[in-house]
Amino acid sequence: xxxxGLDKEGLGEVMAVIGLFNxxxxxxxxxxxxxxxFPEPR
Length: 42
Fold this sequence. Notes:
mainly alpha
């Protein structure tokens, strides 16, 4: 990531977004939320 010009602060922001995404998925799994929209098959 540093080759792309990302400093330590930017890397921290990327990690925070990834953590938030993972936490959202864990919460949805825990509450057994069923999706109402599915991707279209190709």
